[in-house]
Specification:
The structure is a single chain. The protein is an alpha+beta fold. The chain is 43% helix and 26% strand. It contains 9 helices and 12 strands. Helix 1 runs parallel beside helix 2, helix 3 packs antiparallel against helix 4 and helix 5 packs across helix 6. The chain is globular, with a radius of gyration of 19 Å. The two termini are 14 Å apart. The structure holds (3R)-3-hydroxy-3-methyl-5-(phosphonooxy)pentanoic acid. It catalyses: (R)-mevalonate + ATP = (R)-5-phosphomevalonate + ADP + H(+). Keywords: ATP-binding, Cytoplasm, Isoprene biosynthesis, Kinase, Lipid biosynthesis, Lipid metabolism, Magnesium, Nucleotide-binding, Transferase. One of its GO terms (cellular component) is cytosol.
């Protein structure tokens, strides 16, 4: 028997980092997916195979015969530590230990702030639990995905696995989510080509928070208020044009606050300014920063913004919001 599951990447529209401190955030699933196929084996071994894991500048494929593997593939190996934990948790949840083959194929660049780790964790939990006869809801898979992140990276708000498991457009706060009315967002994602470590960036913000709370707490509070404002705009009766203009302004403020936290880089700022100059209404980091991606809101200007991002040395992706989260294929 075999089960194929898939889960989407995500972008955080507003509220990354402050969400770790219990503030709300708004995120959406996008139409890049990770596919995980799980199949039972006759022996007790667990074999993990990964194809085309996209690490900046490198595409690697490899397979391992044992669950405890060592690898020199850096970022790709990091992805596999999420897979390993996801398999362990799914088996624990099902109360059975079986030998399985797990095969992964992904369209999501690793370390780009698009939630590749969460997507692989969610798809693995979905495939393995179903293979072991367990019917988990998407919410249950999201909670297990959050556990995987906590085990692998120490700190996590849980927003990435929640958006990946549930899909669509979500308002997220302290482990709970609410669906926002679906909006087609004319966005362009710009990839810097280098990756930031979410774990290290979250730890860096924590050190600043502890050493200068009088400065950092007001920044985090402002981010929380900004997310509330964004939700008001999204759920308001304003027409689309007015909504986009207000959301763009809030994105620009959010980017400035993230820069103040220290998670932007020269390249991220260059892509953000290139996008604004090319007519985007707003542009900001998405995800942990330190490299990774920015995104721009550019109604009617997506092509121009994509070109500007390319000229500034980034890789543009014109993408759409995906209504669907975890899917058993
Ligand atoms: O994994 P990324 O790069 O999308 O970042 C996750 C968002 C953070 O707020 C930085 C961390 C978290 O756990 O919410």
């Amino acid at each position: 028997m075999r089960v194929l599951a898939s889960a989407p990447a995500k972008i955080i529209l507003f509220g990354e980092h402050s969400v770790v401190y219990g503030k709300p955030a708004i995120a959406a699933a996008i139409n890049l997916r990770t596919y995980v196929e799980a199949e039972l084996r006759d022996d007790k071994k667990i074999r993990i195979e990964a194809h085309d894991i996209k690490v900046p500048g490198l595409t690697v494929s490899f397979s391992e015969n044992e669950i405890y593997f060592e690898s020199d593939y850096g970022k790709a190996a990091e992805v596999l530590s999420y897979v390993r934990q996801a398999i362990e948790l799914a088996m624990e949840e099902a109360g059975v230990r079986r030998g399985i083959n797990v095969s992964i194929t992904s369209q999501i660049p690793v370390g780009a702030g698009l939630g590749s780790s969460a997507a692989v964790a969610v798809a693995t939990i979905g495939a393995v639990s179903k293979l072991l006869g367990l019917e988990l809801t998407r919410e249950e898979v999201a909670k297990l995905g959050h556990k995987v992140e906590l085990l692998v990276q120490g700190a996590s708000s849980g927003i990435d696995p929640t958006v990946s498991a549930i899909g669509g457009f979500l308002y997220y706060e302290k482990g709970n989510f609410e669906h926002l009315p679906f909006m087609e967002l004319p966005i362009v994602v710009g990839y810097t080509g280098s990756s930031g470590s979410t774990k290290e960036l979250v730890a860096m913000v924590r050190r600043r928070y502890e050493s200068m709370p009088e400065l950092i707490v007001p920044i985090l509070n402002a981010m929380g208020k900004l997310v509330e404002k964004a939700r008001e705009v999204i759920t308001s009766e304003l027409d689309e044009e007015e909504k986009f203009a207000k959301l763009g302004e809030l994105m620009n403020i959010n980017h400035g606050l993230l820069d103040a936290l220290g998670v932007s880089t020269k390249k991220l700022s260059e892509l953000v300014y290139a996008a604004r100059t090319a007519g985007a209404l707003g542009a900001k980091i998405t995800g942990a920063g330190g490299g990774g991606c920015m995104y721009a809101l550019a109604p009617g200007r997506q092509r121009e913004v994509a070109t500007a991002i390319t000229i500034a040395g980034g890789t543009p992706m014109i993408t759409e919001i995906s209504r669907e989260g975890l899917r058993i294929e």
